[in-house]
Amino acid sequence: xxxxxxxxxxxxxxxxxxxxxxxxxxxxxxxxxxxxxxxxxxxxxxxxxxxxxxxxxxxxxxxxxxxxxxxxxxxxxxxxxxxxxxxxxxxxxxxxxxxxxxxxxxxxxxxxxxxxxxxxxxxxxxxxxxxxxxxxxxxxxxxxxxxxxxxxxxxxxxxxxxxxxxxxxxxxxxxxxxxxxxxxxxxxxxxxxxxxxxxxxxxxxxxxxxxxxxxxxxxxxxxxxxxxxxxxxxxxxxxxxxxxxxxxxxxxxxxxxxxxxxxxxxxxxxxxxxxxxxxxxxxxxxxxxxxxxxxxxxxxxxxxxxxxxxxxxxxxxxxxxxxxxxxxxxxxx
Length: 333
Fold this sequence. Notes:
Number of domains: 1
Largest sheet: 2 strands, parallel
Strand order of the largest sheet: 1-2
Order of helices and strands: HHHHHHHHHHHEHHHEHEEH
Structural class: mainly alpha
Shape: globular
Distance between the termini: 45 Å
Number of strands: 4
Number of helices: 16
């Protein structure tokens, strides 16, 4: 019997159980590796080794962020004072204060791929018809947010502005922790530059922030903006369809799955966010229906195919890019 609808969600419930020793093992080992990678940048002498540990720290930061993300989903390590301190400080350091991330990300899970209301906590999406009706300035603003360079500079646009500065400006009473995040993050940057010098500043702060910010932004983008994704209006939208048809399974090798905290199994995560990140591969292997998800990867060709997508075409029920949009602008349709 093929599992569909609520039966598919019910089939994932056995995996939505935390193994607390394993949660601590993953959290502490990742944190220790991250600290060691950053410390090594200062201690080793050859620049080539410094660059190696810089890249390693960047990748481990992505993994630590996914663990932090699981904690805020209340999936792991709840009611632990130590975990609360660790993840609160980590969220502040990476410019993802918990008040902002939890509010926007919880909304994203409830409205993923729903036209007209899915932009909170995600990249904006409009229909082709809506895009063509916008003023030129609004079109430029929309395309700027989805531009590859904006995603590449995720440290600035996604984390500094999107997750810290803008929420603070809009609701300072709700997101006061964003002010702490900005002060902590950039004060540390100045301190590292003054104490450790330009080279260590570049390799122990600037490049890791750039690499991890770019990776985080792209992963979040490609999880819902890929060839074959599907969007629905409020009437046609369902939670299960949004998980299975609008959330990707990103194929990676085992090492990259480790660095990205298994977030590539994103369709399963959206189906049941209470499954700990370390149990997502287990659910994938044991439930055949989860193995037929729509896929993408970190292959440059797949990255290009994802980044070229701009708006949802209601007529063809596909995401389209600049070429199709240009035809619409010229024809006025």
